[in-house]
Amino acid sequence: ERRDTEMKIVSKASLMERVTVGRRGCWMWNGALSKEGYGVLRCGDGQRPAPRLFWESFVSVIPPGHRVLSRKVPGCVGKACCNPAHHRLQGPVVLKELEFCKLGHPLTGDNVVVENRNGREFKRCRICRREAWRDWQKQKSRQTPVSSSKSSTRK
Question: What local confidence, expressed as pLDDT, does residue 105 receive?
Fold first, then answer.
C-alpha cells in the first residue's frame, strides 16, 4: 500500500519533460506505454500510471479507492494524454452483487463460474457460458475449410 508521503515521486518539471504539449492542450506522454496504451513511469518497485502521477503532482492526493479517468474532451488524444484538466477523479466503485445474469438465470450456487481475465475476477453464469461455448464451437466447425480433392490429369 502506497503512503501519502510518496505522493510526489517525481517533480512537476521532470514530468513535463516527458510530455509534448499539443495544440488542443493535451500533454502527450512520450515515455513507455502500458499494453492498454496508457503512459506508465517506473517508480520504486513497479510502474505507475502517468495520468495518476500527473494528478497527484498537479492537483492533489488521490484518496484510497479512487481512480483517475479520462473526461473524453473533444480533440483529446485519449489514453496517452496526461493533462489533469482532461481527467476526472472517480470515487470508490461499490460493486453490487448480481443476483441474475442478463438472460435471467440465477447467479447462485452451482450456476456461478468465477473467471479471471487480466488479473480481474468476475462471476459468470454457467448456463450462458456453456451456450456461448457451444455457439463458438458451431461457428468454428463451419469455418474449417473443406479440402477438395484435385484430380491431376497428365497428358
Answer: 86
